[in-house]
Amino acid sequence: MSLFDLTGKVALITGSTKGIGLAIAQRMAEAGAKVVISSRNQDACDEVAADICANGGDALPIACNINYKEQLQALVSKTLEHYGKIDILVVNAALNPFYGPSQDIPDEAFDKIMSSNIGSAHRLCQMVLPGMAKLGGGAAIIVSSIAGIKGSNVLGAYGISKAADMQMARNLAVEWGPHNIRVNCIAPGLIRTDFARALWENPETYKQTVSKYPLRRIGEPDEIAGAAIYLASDAGSFTTGQTLVVDGGGTITG
Q: Which of 83, 158, 213, 230 is catalytic?
């Protein structure tokens, strides 16, 4: 059996109708997992789930706005009603409504970033990890960012939230490790997604960014999906409390 086989596993993936989350859902389905597709738009969830099922996978579409605890609870409850368990939790959905100096960020935007990016991850883990423990173990993966490692003059609040993801993973890894639950982060660099479009579509920004990457290019969503499968599978069974940086080497250079 492959170390990367996810057959029989149920994976709940937030923000999985596009970008990194979509790639993770598609690749986990290919690896044998039953996947829950979730974003704010039910039609988008339905479309992605139908595509995965048409390609031989098993997918359940459930719309959820991560800003509301009751919707997060409904997402978890509906998943358990349908599949009976959650083996893998991927907290991918996040937002960043402000791009600019920290001095200029409105209180509302700052609070929304913290509540959505940190709060939803915290609440989902509270809802899901106890059930994993009863099953004998599982894996939680929080998609963070290198913005949580490097300083920035335009992504300050977002970077704070992503640094918090890394500490959350460490805390939960300690708390839930005795129950055979592993909790890790992935910190992507610049990836070709709609979320980062403003960075990679601008020729000057793109050139400046990739000039600092040893691989001299930005990443693709599938390159994050591979890391997620590693962390969710037996291949990563001795990895917990870590942040796996997948950034083309951007953080090792000046």
A: 158
